[in-house]
Design goal:
heterodimer; A: alpha/beta; TIM Barrel; nine-stranded mixed sheet; two-stranded antiparallel ribbon; 9 helices; 11 strands; 33% helix; 25% strand; B: Anaerobic Ribonucleotide-triphosphate Reductase Large Chain; five-stranded mixed sheet; 51% helix
């Protein structure tokens, strides 16, 4: 089968995005994720199954099956903006590694058309899988949420050993540029020590950039829409002062730190 | 190191105070100009009209009260009161008299008018009975054209009631040689002709009129010079005294002679700008490429150390304030179409030099800075963009966009230059274009563009197709056939094209009738002194003396018509889900939806008036009955359900604005139904008609004259704005919307197209927001769009969008790392963004 005919399941295509890779980008959201982060702002991304979600009083079907070519026909409509800004395609999710053939197809297609590619991923998969994407991938935006595996597991339902091991391998890859991203979640990883640990680890791998992404509650309504409980309760976004403090803590490790993507 | 100074420049306290003083009171109408004009005209009866105009202009400039406002550095005010306006009875006056008692209270652009002024104006106006351009235009106009205006197919009200304006003169030449230089040149021209030449009398009358007008401008400036010197004598504050002495010195020299400094150039510019608007009431007197013609003076003064950048900026800021000191009262209907007291004095920065190099300089940046300092609607500020525009200039402009004042508008050289070439401009002239008024390109000092010549509502001819040419019981259009005659979509579409073509012919007739009236009754010698080749060919601008002559009426409602005709094609002819008759029934009944209260009241008023006219006595009971009847929706529940189903079907088919190639290609074709027929017509000045596709703000009032349309738009709601998709119909984000609009043919609409996008300030937050914004402009322009402007909306708008999501379905906000359509977000997120606005808006 031609790789352009490979089917995959997505739940959204978001254009005119500026924070997940360089320039103006189109983000394709892949459905399905092995992690279950409590704060996840896209809870409809977690299950591979097509779901129903209440949005603004109306029922919305979340998830549709499309081919690589169909997605890319849509993505490439914004070519003029990619060309002007060095932008391109970003795969987010969900976790793009859960639909490897499809994700590989999308990235390959994008590179054929000369646009930049990025994934936003947890890298929670055997490295052989990840490796398949690398020839077509410019930027790997990798989530590292915590250095303590037990705590990681408690909040995401998965341990972090594989993730950290893959981070080290990705940092050595010559194909792609690795950026580490940390969702800053109050009560989970928002101490200077915890952020500092992640920064230190990233710096030791030679990673150049660290993004601190402050927790937000924008996904809260979606939990209700899916008939699920929002477990973050009364946790509120970290203050700007707090974020600045964490930024300074991370910067002590000789890594370029920015707040937000 | 950058070539440019792109940083911020401190705003002086003076500017803050000048702005405050400008807006302390409601604008006022003054009578002096009308009285002086009339005095002069009474004394010159029997002389050539051009000479009478010149003498009247001189009489006005010699006698009209002058004033220097507190702390001003640039002087010259058309009225005693800030933001006041004079009147121009030579064009029309009856509308104003009929509004004497309501103009202060009306919604759009109210003006204060004193009883004394009313009396003086009544007295002066009485002279003008039967002598105005509008009366002459009426008698020139074909009956059917007048009927089409009466039936709101199009409205040429702008030039029917007012002067034409819409011009950029040779500011650079006045700065360089002064009016003395122009007088010398005119005199030489006069001497070069023999008195025995066949057209000598006409030529000499015109050239002498030019000389008188230029002398009048000099006289006016000298009055200011003397007045400033008097004020200086009385002034106690030594700083202000020396400022006033400097003003006296400036006004003694310019605009009589060429400017010798940047300050003099600024003052000279201002006299030209305001006196053009003293001579005639036409709006859109556009300063054009200010950063180009002012630059030599700035550069020389900076190099010699004569001024600081801060002082140069302060002078520019003063001009920006002064541009808001001028005002214009329009009739109530026009005021709605041009809402916001706008004079559309378009000033443009950046672009290319006539020989094709990048023209951006430090003044281009300082123009942006001036807009940020004064934060007022004038000048209508524009940016020219070409492939070689410096990125830092784009970013600076984007910062201005982010402030939310709706400026600047962005224009694409890569479309406009070839478009002007196709209209016969030379390469050098095309590269040197600037924008007039809203979006209309012209070559300064050589063009009488008659831009903005009428609003043409493309939706109304479709109504004529449905009614076989009948409007409100009157056979207005041709009989294009009964609905049952339209066997194929092409039959229907051809009927639309036939109605369009017919109405366009009437539009041309109306415009040309008005054109003749201006030439005959209101030639403008002062304006003509600064437009090539008037002096050389001995003819005023109004008589065809300009090098390039156009008439540019603008069509609007493209998106509605594209969506409507596409819906008919799909639903009636391809899917056969509904018949034309059923659709007509739904349209006639506004899809079963109630009519807006305002329209109900309007209908009731009309009915009541008819009753009184026919002698029926009216009491409260009858009034209540009539209102109830007018607002009643006579549809049965079954009808309503049926109409509702039709509306649902319409909603489901693709709409223009979503990057759908099929609909977008269709929209391109629909736009041609206006742009193509129009370009075949000629005007009395020997020029060509050319289409614009933009509505100013007329899409709202003219929408209120349009019934329900087959795109699902309800009766009397606004029609689509410019070439933008219908409000709420583009639901795939800004890039998809821009891609769709770029698929129209912008080259053929050489009188300009207008694409309006709504953004929330958050979408432009931070460096990445600005960069993405510039990318959007660049990406749209790469695809050959012509113009783009941005409405950066406030929290109030967002609140309204929460309540009325259908009105705002294409409003873009920045959510987190991405921008999204506001109305698609959850309530809590919307609240969040509304709360964030306080920080995000600057």
């Amino acid at each position: 089968m031609d790789y352009k005919d490979i089917k995959g399941r997505i739940f959204n295509i978001q254009k005119y995005s500026v924070h997940d890779g360089p320039g103006v980008r189109t983000i394709v959201f892949i459905k399905g994720c092995p992690l279950r982060c409590r704060w996840c702002c896209n809870p409809e991304s977690q299950e591979f199954e097509v779901q129903k979600m209440q949005v603004g009083g109306k029922e919305k079907i979340v998830g549709r099956d499309v081919t690589v070519a169909e997605v890319m026909d849509n993505v490439l409509r914004d070519m003029p903006y990619f060309r002007r800004s060095g932008g391109g395609l970003t795969l987010s999710g969900g976790e793009c590694l859960t639909q490897l053939d499809f994700s590989e197809g999308l990235l390959r297609y994008a590179k054929d058309f000369g646009i930049t590619t990025a994934v936003e991923s947890t890298a929670f998969a055997p490295f052989e899988k990840i490796e398949r994407l690398l020839p077509y991938l410019d930027y790997y935006l990798m989530d590292i949420k915590h250095m303590n595996s037990e705590k990681h597991k408690e909040y995401t339902k998965q341990p972090n050993e594989l993730i950290l091991k893959n981070a080290a391998k990705l940092a050595r890859s010559e194909h792609t540029e690795l950026t580490v991203r940390v969702p800053v979640i109050p009560g989970f990883n928002d101490t200077e020590e915890e952020i500092s640990d992640i920064a230190s680890f990233a710096a030791s791998l030679g990673v150049l950039r660290l993004h601190l992404l402050p927790y937000h509650r924008m996904g809260a309504d979606k939990y209700a829409g899916l008939g699920r409980e929002y477990l973050m309760g009364d946790v509120y976004p970290p203050s700007n002062e707090k974020m600045q403090k964490l930024k300074r803590a991370a910067e002590r490790h000789n890594i370029k730190v920015q707040i937000g993507g | 190191m950058s070539k440019f100074y792109s940083g911020t420049i401190k705003k002086s306290g003076r500017i803050t105070r000048l702005v405050e003083n400008l807006f302390k009171k409601m604008p006022e109408i003054e009578a002096d100009r009308a009285v002086l004009l009339t005095e002069s005209f009474k004394q010159t009866e029997g002389e050539p009209v051009i000479m009478r105009k010149a003498k009247a202009f001189a009489h006005i400039t010699e006698n009209i009260p002058i004033t220097i406002r507190d702390e001003e550095l640039i002087v010259g005010s058309a009225t005693k009161a800030p933001r006041g306006c004079q009147t121009f009875p030579e064009f029309s006056y009856k509308w104003l008299e009929s509004e004497f008692d309501t103009i202060e209270k009306r919604d759009a652009d109210p003006f204060y008018i004193s009883e004394e002024t009313k009396a003086r104006l009544r007295e002066a106006n009485s002279y003008w009975e039967g002598k105005t351009t509008s009366e002459l235009a009426t008698s020139y106009m074909d009956e059917r054209a007048a009927a089409a205006i009466e039936h709101n197919i199009f409205t040429p009200g702008n030039y029917f009631y007012n002067g034409v304006g819409h011009v950029t003169v040779k500011y650079g030449e006045v700065l360089e040689i002064g009016f003395r230089g122009i007088i010398d040149r005119t005199r030489a021209e006069l001497e070069a002709h023999s008195v025995a030449e066949a057209d000598y009398s006409e030529r000499s009358a015109f050239l002498n009129a030019v000389i008188i007008s230029c002398e009048a401008a000099i006289t006016y400036a000298k009055r200011y010079s003397r007045y400033a010197a008097e004020l200086a004598e009385r002034e106690k504050d030594p700083v202000r005294r020396s400022e006033l002495l400097k003003i006296a010195e400036n006004c003694a020299r310019v605009p009589e002679y060429g400017a010798q400094s940047f300050y003099e150039a600024c003052q000279s510019f201002w006299f030209v700008q305001m006196l053009i608007q003293m001579e005639s009431s036409g709006h859109s007197i556009s300063p054009g490429r200010f950063d180009q013609y002012m630059y030599p003076y700035y550069k020389a003064d900076m190099e010699s150390g004569k001024i600081t950048r801060e002082f140069a900026q302060e002078l520019m800021d003063c001009i920006w304030v002064k541009l808001n000191d001028l005002n214009k009262a329009r009739d109530a209907a026009s005021a709605e179409g041009f809402a916001g007291y706008s004079l559309f004095q378009n000033l443009i920065a950046g672009g290319q030099t006539p020989d094709g190099r990048d023209a951006t300089n430090d003044l281009s940046f300082m123009c942006v800075e001036a807009c940020m300092h004064v934060m007022l609607p004038q000048p209508s500020f524009s940016i020219r963009v070409w492939n070689g525009s410096p990125h830092e200039f784009m970013l600076k402009a984007a910062e201005l966009t982010r402030t939310g004042i709706g400026l600047p508008a962005y224009y694409n050289d890569e479309v406009i230059i070839p478009s002007l070439l196709s209209r016969g401009l030379t390469m050098e002239d095309a590269r040197d274009y600037n924008i007039i008024g809203c979006v209309e390109p012209q070559k300064s000092g050589k063009t009488d563009g008659w831009h903005d010549a009428a609003f043409f509502n493309m939706c109304r001819p479709l109504e004529l197709v449905f009614s076989n040419g009948v409007d409100k019981g009157y056979q207005l259009g041709h009989r294009t056939g009964e609905l049952s005659d339209f066997k194929t979509f092409d039959d229907f579409y051809n009927a639309y094209k036939a109605q369009m073509k017919d109405m366009i012919e009437l539009l041309v007739n109306a415009d040309n009738a008005i054109d003749e009236a201006h030439a005959e009754r209101c030639p403008l010698p002062f304006l003509s002194s600064m437009v090539d080749d008037c002096v050389k060919c001995g003819k005023s601008v109004q008589n065809g003396g300009a090098v390039y002559n156009f008439t540019g009426p603008q069509g609007f409602g493209i998106a509605n018509m594209a969506d409507s005709l596409f819906a008919i094609k799909k639903l009636v002819y391809e899917d056969r889900k509904v018949t034309l008759e059923e659709l007509k029934d739904a349209l006639d009944n506004n899809y079963g939806k109630p009519l807006p209260q305002k329209m109900v009241e309007k209908t009731a008023v009309e009915v009541l008036k008819n009753m009184t006219d026919s002698g029926i006595e009216i009491n409260d009971e009858i009034v209540a009955k009539v209102i109830a009847e007018a607002g009643k929706n006579h549809c049965s529940e079954a009808d309503k359900a049926r109409y509702g189903r039709i509306l649902d079907m319409i909603d489901e088919i693709p709409k223009f604005g979503n990057d759908n190639d099929e609909v977008d290609a269709f929209a391109r074709d629909v736009a041609y139904t206006y742009t193509r027929p129009l370009e075949s017509y000629k005007n009395p000045r020997g020029g060509q008609f050319q289409a614009g596709l933009y509505p100013v703000s007329a899409n709202v009032p003219l929408g209120a004259q349009t019934g329900a349309t087959p795109d699902g738009r309800l009766a009397y709601m606004p029609v689509a704005d410019g070439v933008s998709p219908s409000a709420g119909r583009d639901i795939n984000g800004p890039t998809a919307s821009a891609n769709s609009v770029s698929k129209l043919d912008h080259y053929i609409a050489s009188n300009g197209t207008l694409f309006n996008m709504k953004f929330h300030p958050s979408a432009l937050a931070g460096k990445s927001g600005l960069e993405a914004f510039v990318t959007l402009v660049r990406g749209y322009f790469d695809q050959k769009g012509s113009h783009m402007q941005f409405n950066v909306v406030s929290r109030e708008t967002l609140r309204d969008a929460q309540k009325n999501p259908d009105k705002y379905r294409s409003l873009v906000v920045r959510v987190a790392g991405y921008s999204a359509l506001f109305t698609t977000l959850s309530k809590s997120l919307q609240d969040d963004i509304i709360n964030r606005t306080e920080q995000a808006s600057i």
